[in-house]
Design brief:
With about 180 residues, the chain is an alpha+beta fold. It is about 55% helix and about 15% strand. The protein contains 4 helices and 4 strands; from the N terminus they run H-E-E-E-E-H-H-H. The chain has helices at about 5-35, 80-105, 130-135, 145-175; strands at about 45-50, 55-60, 65-70, 75-80. A 4-stranded antiparallel sheet has the order 1-2-3-4, with no helix packed on it. A hairpin with a 2-residue loop joins strand 3 (about 65-70) and strand 4 (about 75-80). The longest helix is centred in the N-terminal third of the chain and has 32 residues, at about 5-35. The radius of gyration is 45 Å and the shape is flat.
């Protein structure tokens, strides 16, 4: 057989063996695993070395502690548990939901609500202008011929300067090339 086929065959047989072992444990051997070891036996605590000392896991309760060595000996301190904080927040939210449901069931208590109907027309909306307001007109004076001539001469001078500047730039560029 080829080496690739052999490793594939081993992989499959390992997977099937593992699946069979898990199935047997789930069906018949699960009771044996669920038994707890007494405190005197090794197995209740799992120790893992960390740079500060040792991380201790209590396999019975799930409590995690960090153990460090100091002058007096070893001291273990419980690591703050996020699960308890999450459970407290879930409890607070559940109590708040129950309170809101009770408030909602009690009926609407909107402050400032008026039982009388609002007027159908908008009182702030202005109607058509009155005769006195209609006489007012805004007049915008048109520019005189002299003003138009001044603007035209300004634009002509600006245009000529722009063309002269473009010609100078073109001459400078063509002279350098």
């Amino acid at each position: 057989m080829k080496p690739a086929a052999t490793s594939l065959l081993r992989s499959w047989s390992l997977k099937w063996s593992l699946a069979a072992a898990v199935t047997l444990l789930a069906i018949g051997g699960g009771g044996v695993v669920a038994q707890s070891a007494p405190d005197t036996e090794n197995g209740r605590y799992t120790m893992t070395p960390i740079p500060e000392g040792v991380l201790r896991l209590d396999t019975r309760t799930g409590t995690v502690s960090t153990c460090t060595k100091n002058d007096a000996g070893w001291a273990c301190y419980a690591v703050p548990d996020e699960r308890s904080a999450l459970d407290a927040e879930i409890g607070r939210l559940q109590a708040e939901v129950e309170k809101l449901k009770a408030d909602l069931a009690a009926g609407p208590t909107v402050s400032g609500k008026v039982e009388e109907a609002l007027p159908k027309s908008d009182q702030l909306k202005k109607g058509p202008p009155k005769a006195a307001e209609g006489d007012r007109r805004i007049e915008i004076p048109l520019p005189s011929d002299q003003d138009v001539d001044r603007v035209m001469s300004f634009l002509e001078r600006t245009w000529r300067r722009l063309i002269e500047m473009a010609n100078r730039v073109q001459k400078d560029v063509s002279g350098k090339i």
